[in-house]
Amino acid sequence: MTDLPSDRPATRLAHSGRADKSCYGPVNPPVVRASTLLFANTAELKAAAGTRRTYGRHGSATTMALEQALCALEGAADCLLTPSGLSAISTTLLALLQPGDHLLMSDACYEPTRALCDGLLTRLGIHTSYYDPLIGSGISELLQANTRVVFVEAAGSLTFEIHDVPALAAAAHAQGALLVADSTWATPLGWDAFALGIDVSLHAATKYIVGHSDVLLGAILCTAAVQPRLRQTYAALGLSVGGDDAYLALRGLRTLAARLAVHRENTAQVLAWLAQRAEVAELLYPPLAGAAGHELWQRDFKPEYACGLLGVVFAEGISRAQVNRLIDSTRLFGIGYSWGGYESLMIPCHPASSRSVTAARWQGKVMARLHIGLEDPADLLADLHQAFAAMHTV
Ligand SMILES: *Cc1c(COP(=O)(O)O)cnc(C)c1O
To answer: How close is the Cα of 181 to the center of ligand 1, in Å?
Structure first.
C-alpha cells in the first residue's frame, strides 16, 4: 500500500500498514510472535546479516506494519516502537545527548520526564534547565553553546500551554540544537510536526493510538538526519515490542480519526455545560475559542482532530475536598491516570508541585483533569450535573 490515491488522514488510517500479498489475503497483517527466525541455508543466513530480518528483537511483519502506518501519517523518515511512552522519551534523550550537554525542557513537561532529567540524565552529566512554555522566541536567551536539545510538549501536561513551536524550532536550529516534541495530546493527526520544525515527534501510543486502555506503547518518529543515532541507541538498549501489542495498536489506529471526531464533539458539549457553572473559573482547552493558547493552537493544529483531554480550574472558594467529593460522586468518569481510551476519566491535579519556573502561576489553584470519552454526551452531562450538586454537600 505505497501508492495511495489520497493523502487524507482518514484514508491513510484505513490503508497504511496492511497485510502484504505473502499473507494470502487477510486485510490485516498477522500477529507475529517470534524470537528465532529460521533460514533455509547458511547462504541465506549470511545474506540477512545487517538487515532487520535476522532475529525477533529487530522487528516483525506486525511491528513493521505499525511503523509504516505511523511514518505514513506523520511523514517521518523512520518510526521506532518502544515498550512505553516514557521509554520513547528516555531513548530519544539518551540518543541525542551526551555528558556535558545541556537540555532545555518545557516547565510543563510530563512529570516522569522531569524525573528522568533530574535523575538519570543528571547522573550521566547531562544538565537540564526548565523554560516557561510561553517563552516563544525568548528561548534564544536560554540557549547555551552546549544546548543540544529543546523539548516541547503539545500541549503542556496538566496545564495545556501551547508552545510556539516554529519560534522554538528557529531558535534551536540557529544554534545547531534539535527540537523534540512529546506529541501525545496532538496525536499523529492533530498537527504536522515535521512541517512545524520538529526533528523528533514522540507519542505515548498508550493513549489515543491504542485507544482502548489495554496496551503500553511508545513511538519515536524522526527525520532522516537523526535516524541513525536513534536506531543505534535503540539497538544498544535492546528495546523491542511484541507482536500482540503492535497488533492492538494498529487496530486502534484504524479508528483514530473516527474516535477523535466523537471525543471532540462530546468535549464541546461538556465544555459548554462547564462554562455555565459558577464553580468553574477557567477551562484549559486550547481548541476552545477564548481559552489560553487558542490563537497558537489555531495557527499550528488541525481543528478537526482536537481531542478529549482538558483541565478545569475551579473558582476561588471551591476547596480540594469539594473537588474530591465531585470526583468521588461521578458514576461514568473513572478515577485513574492515563487517557485516550474510549472511557471518561477525572482526577484532581496540582501542577504547582511539579514546576520550577512557572510554579507561581498555578500556586493555590484547585484543579482537575478530565478525559471526555465516547459515552453518550447526554449521560455525561447528567452525571456531571449530579456530581456538581454533591460537591456542595461537603
Ligand atoms: C502518558 C504519557 C506519557 C507516558 O506514556 P506511557 O506509555 O504511560 O509510558 C508521556 N507523555 C505524555 C504527555 C503522556 O500523557
So the answer is: 12
Ligand 1 in contact with 182 (CB < 6 A)?
Answer: yes
Q: How far is CA 114 from CA 16, 118, 130, 159, 354, in A?
A: 35, 6, 9, 15, 8
Is the dihedral angle over the CA atoms 85, 90, 95, 100 positive or is it negative? positive
Q: Is 282 helix (H, G, I), strand (E, B) or coil?
A: strand
Phi, psi values for residue 282, rounded to 5°: -150, 145
* 139 contacts 131 by C-beta, under 8 angstroms: yes
Largest distance between two CA atoms of the chain: 77
Q: What is the pLDDT of residues 176-227, one digit of tens each?
A: 999 999 999 999 999 999 999 999 999 999 999 999 999 999 999 999 999 9
Cα angle for residues 181, 369, 248 (degrees, 5° grid): 60
**Which among 107, 110, 285, 355 is annotated as catalytic?**
110
User: Left, alpha or beta for 127 (phi > 0: left; psi -120 to 50: alpha)?
Assistant: beta
Name the band, by pLDDT with cuts 50, 70 and 90, for residue 394. confident
* Cell numbers linked to 274: 462547564
Residue 131 annotated to the active site = no
Q: Give dist(CA 51, CA 60) in Å, integer.
A: 12
Supply the pLDDT for residue 193: 98
Q: Which residues does 345 contact at the CB level (< 8 Å), separation at least 6?
A: 333, 334, 335, 336, 338, 339, 369, 370, 371, 373
Cell output for 351: 501542577
**pLDDT over 70 at 2, yes or no:** no
> Would you say the CB of residue 216 lies under 6 angstroms from ligand 1?
yes
Residue 1 grid coordinates: 500500500
Domains and CATH numbers, the chain: 9-253 (3.40.640.10), 256-390 (3.90.1150.10)
pLDDT value of residue 21: 75
The three-class DSSP label of residue 129 is strand
